[in-house]
Every structure is written in C-alpha cells, then in structure tokens.
Amino acid sequence: MGWLASETALLSAGPGALLDVAARIADEGQVPDPAITEVARLAAPALAELQPDKVRAGVESVIMGRSLELGLQWMHDAGILKVVLPELEATVDFSQEAGRRHKDVWEHTKQVVRQAVPKPAVRWAALLHDIGKVPTRVMLPDGRVTFHRHAEVGARMFDPIAKRFGFDRDGRQKVRFLILHHLRANAYEPSWTDAAVRRFDHEMGDRLDELLDLSRADVTSRRPGRRQEAVANIHALKERIVAIRELDARIPPLPPGLGNAIMEAFNLPPSRRIGDIRKLCQDAVERGELQERQEAPYYIEYLRRSGVTS
Fold first, then answer.
1. What does the chain look like in DSSP terms, one character per residue?
2. Which terminus of the chain is more solvent-facing, meaning fewer CB atoms within 10 Å of its CB: N or C?
3. Of the listed ranges 6-15, 34-43, 48-57, 68-77, the one predicted with least confidence
C-alpha cells in the first residue's frame, strides 16, 4: 500500500491515523498488507481516547466511500470496530436464520450500507439499523428466529452511540428516527387503505424520502426477483402517497366549513378548541374510523357519539 510507508509510520501517527487508513481503503478499494493490519490491531485500543468528533468523522468517511464494505471489514479485522462501535462488532457472525451464513447480520449490514444512497444520515442509519437484533434474538423450537421489537431496541441503543460520537441534535434525531422506523415501508401492501397510507405519510413527515431510501437499501434477498419486487413495492407506496397528497390538495378529507358546523351544533364560540375538536375528526379519518369527504353532519354525529363536547 504505497501511501503508507511502514508499520512504524502507522504507530507514530497516532490513533486517528487508523481511521484514515480505513477511510483510504473505503475510497480506493485496496487492503493493506497483513503486517499493517496487525500493527493497527495493537494500536486500536488508543482510539478510545480520540475526540468524539474525530471518531465520527472517521467512521463517516468510511461509510461514504466507494468501497465502503472493504473499509468496514478492515475496521473489524484490525480490531477498530470493537473499540469504536462494539454494538456493531456484536453483529459479526451473528446469524439471522438458522443454518444460513449469508444471513449473518454483519454481512447483511455491509450490503445495506453499500446499497444505500450516499447521504450521511441514511448511511449511518443503514450501518446501525440492525444492532437491536443482537439483544432481541430468540431461537424458536421449530428453527425459526425472531427479533421482536428490534427496531425500537436499536433506536434506544443508538442514544449512547450518538452521545459517544458527539452527533448534533438534528443528526441524532434523524438517524434515530430512521432506525426506529426502518421496517415500516417494507411492510406496505396494496391492500392498505388510503387512510393508512395518509397516516404513514403524516407520521414520517419530512423524513419520508430518507426512510424510503433506507427501506430500498434494506432489501438484500438472493431469491431471484425478490429485490426488484420489494423495491417496486416501495415505489408503489411512494406513488400512492403522492396521489393522495394531490387529491387531498384538491378535495380535503374533511369538508370546508366543518369548524362553523361544530360551533353551531354545540353552541360554541370561536376559539382554539374548535380546531382541536376538528382535529379529532381528522385523526379518526387517518385511523380509518371515519370515512373521508363526507358532509358535515356525518362528522357532527361522530362527535356527539364520542361525547367530546359534553
């Protein structure tokens, strides 16, 4: 590896140089001699003393590289990963399905990061999206493996990582959100009602596109056509979201004048409470409890039955 003169040079350069090596591997796709890797393994514990922003920047340089899977693998081989990201190190050789080596969480993770669009938040979420599988794995008697609520557990596991790496507030919230919800889009089926699609859109908010980016990357099946089918399903979800947004812009789900109808029906003066009561109808539409685009009396009757104005 011509750009690294010797093992001695690596040792004398300080712990930050280890992450520089990993980033260079991820960028150039060239792995150093085993002697360099062994020296890196000896020096890796010193990374625990490196400033958080330097560690975060170093790891981010790796996951944004063109050959990032080589950089990540070298971080594991050189003992770097277990120092800076032990939560991710724990996924190495951690099987997702009994007897299926390619379902190793670590191998899956590297593929997801490689397939992810080159946006830092999406790549970070791809890197850490399955760390919650380690503490949640249950091997069932029939040979099946479950990871109940691993997305929620993974999001909680990210909190100390974000603190340790010095993520800013926006970056921390964005990556955590993506980890927490990374399963949602891939659960979409054409049978979802418009209300369910609308609720999903509202819950994802301005992070929808990045979540869909992560969802596409999270399809790593080797079954012929499975990846294309799953990606097409996510595309269909996005098309339905856009179509519903356009329809709602032309014809809102609730009728115009519903606020006035609420005031008249319940003898209420204008106030913020009218908006709150109207939102109860909006929320019920999103939950699928009420039909959309009905006349005002339909929603007034719902409010009467609910007793929210008594």
1. -TTS--HHHHHHT-THHHHHHHHHHHHH--PPPHHHHHHHHHHGGGGGGS-HHHHHHHHHHHHTSTTHHHHHHHHHHTT-HHHH-HHHHTTTT-BSSTT-GGGBHHHHHHHHHHHS-S-HHHHHHHHHTTTTHHHHEEE-TTS-EEETTHHHHHHHHHHHHHHHHT--HHHHHHHHHHHHTTTTGGG--TT--HHHHHHHHHHHGGGHHHHHHHHHHT----STTHHHHHHHHHHHHHHHHHHHHHHHHHS-SSPTTHHHHHHHHHT--SSHHHHHHHHHHHHHHHTTSS-SS--HHHHHHHHHHHTTT-
2. C
3. 6-15
CA 27 to CA 21: how far, in whole Å? 10
Tens digits of residue pLDDT in 280-292: 999 999 888 999 9
**What average pLDDT does the structure give for the chain?**
92
State yes or no: pLDDT of 228 exceeds 80.
yes
